[in-house]
UniProtKB/TrEMBL annotation:
Native organism taxonomy: Bacteria, Bacillati, Actinomycetota, Actinomycetes, Micromonosporales
Presence of keyword Nucleotide-binding: yes
Family from the record: Belongs to the ABC transporter superfamily.
Low complexity compositional bias, start-end: 1-11, 26-50
Biological source species: Actinocatenispora rupis
PANTHER family found in the cross-reference section: ABC TRANSPORTER, ATP-BINDING PROTEIN
Protein name (database record): AAA+ ATPase domain-containing protein
MF terms (GO), sorted A to Z: ATP binding; ATP hydrolysis activity
Length: 270
């Protein structure tokens, strides 16, 4: 995990909108295994991508209870394709687990959940193919020893978009320059501040041309100006047709279409 770094001060310039050119485990509190990379024959160069249609997300009474208690509970939402939805709640309310469940990467044992017309958990593999993770600590975050540009090159390889060594390097830098990420392409993952970790992971998520993106802790470690810019970028992604679920403690006037509140899972039913 990358070391935590303080957020930069001052209002950051608004980055240009990005126009890119499991089986259930024994312990239900354990995330499901991530999906395999997309078939290279079906993968398209992000530089030639056309905006995808967003995925609807519908949950009714969704929850996960383990031997240790509730992880999240009583979540009901009806998200239309292309909406930006904030998932709010205090620490311990299960916001991160809820996001991963919506992306087909975490189990649940109460209620019902369907994403893009696929019913979970039966269709977890299909949901994993259409959903991508932005920054989610412990699940999708910058590798400490890789530069920002190397993250893009690695993702190109995973998507089967291989080029010659020199061409791949230049292509990765071009994609990064066209993304919301506004930092040094040679900065190591361990040296990125929370704001640029979010932007880099969002750029990586967009490369797979997903119909749903989930982003965790949008307000963690960011100052007011950075939060405003990041919410603006997420709004632009949703306006392009991608459904976006973003967790935070509070929205603070963010340009969301609706807010889903995660019930405090540390409190038992009366």
């Amino acid at each position: 995990m990358a070391d935590e770094a303080g957020a930069t001060t001052g209002a950051p310039p608004a980055p240009a909108p990005y126009d890119p050119d499991p089986a259930n485990p024994a312990d239900p509190a354990t995330p499901a295994a991530p999906a395999e990379p997309a078939d290279p024959a079906e993968a398209a160069d992000p530089a030639d991508a056309v905006g995808p249609a967003g995925a609807a997300v519908r949950a009714e009474g969704l929850g996960l209870r383990t031997r240790r208690g509730w992880v999240f509970r009583d979540v009901t939402m009806d998200v239309a394709p292309g909406e930006l939805v904030a998932v709010t709640g205090a620490a311990g309310s299960g916001r991160t687990s809820l996001l991963l469940a919506a992306a087909g990467r975490f189990v649940f044992n109460r209620g019902a959940l369907a994403v893009g017309g696929h019913t979970l958990p039966k269709a977890s593999a299909a949901v994993q193919r259409l959903a991508a993770l932005g920054y989610v600590a412990g699940a999708h975050q910058p590798e400490p020893a890789l530069t920002a540009a190397e993250h893009v090159r690695e993702r190109l390889d995973l998507l089967g978009l291989r080029r010659g060594r020199r061409g791949r390097r230049e292509h990765a830098r071009a994609l990064l320059a066209d993304s919301p990420y506004d930092g040094d392409p040679d900065a190591l993952g361990r040296d990125l501040d929370p704001y640029r970790r979010q932007l880099l992971c969002l750029a990586l998520a967009r490369m797979a041309r997903p119909r749903l993106i989930v982003v965790d802790d949008v307000d963690l470690g960011l100052d007011t100006a950075e939060r405003a810019v990041l919410w603006g970028v997420l709004r632009a992604v949703a306006d392009e047709g991608v459904t976006v679920l973003a967790s935070c403690r509070e929205t603070g006037g963010a340009p969301v279409d609706r807010t889903v509140h995660a019930t405090d899972a540390t409190k038992e039913y009366a």
